[in-house]
Known about the structure:
This protein is mainly alpha-helical and 164 residues long. The chain is built from five helices and no strands.
Amino acid sequence: MQAIPDFIDGLNRVTAKLIRWLALFMVLVQFAIVVGRYVFGVNSIAVQESVLYMHATLFMLGAGYTLLVDRHVRVDVFYAKASPATQRRIDIFGHLFLLLPSMVVLLYWSWPSVRNSWRILEGPISVGGIEAVFLLKTLIPAFCILIILQSLSLLARLVFWKTR
């Protein structure tokens, strides 16, 4: 039974290992953009947009891992001083009534836009930009799915094994 949560955790760990290098690459590309523009007078809209694409990919696909390692934003007015049992109840409530419903709603409402974007293979954001907005929009459902899966994994651990 614990194999499913372990698989989901592993999926988000592998995803994080694959995308973590985007942070470094994004900084290097941004540095090259600045040097190119101010030193050599060269500019490329597509290269500038690539930083946006890398940033979006890093954060959208890395969110499930962030949830897994408990480094997400938490409003801990009550949580920090609560007992472990109360923290567990707060976590269960948060997953069931806040996180999962919001991800399902976001997935539901974003899907038509993503589907339409793929249907027309939506082009660049700016003239001369990357001709793949459909890929950028696909990050939204991918984000939702990774968060939903990780939330279910954490819920299973909280409910069945009483661990985090």
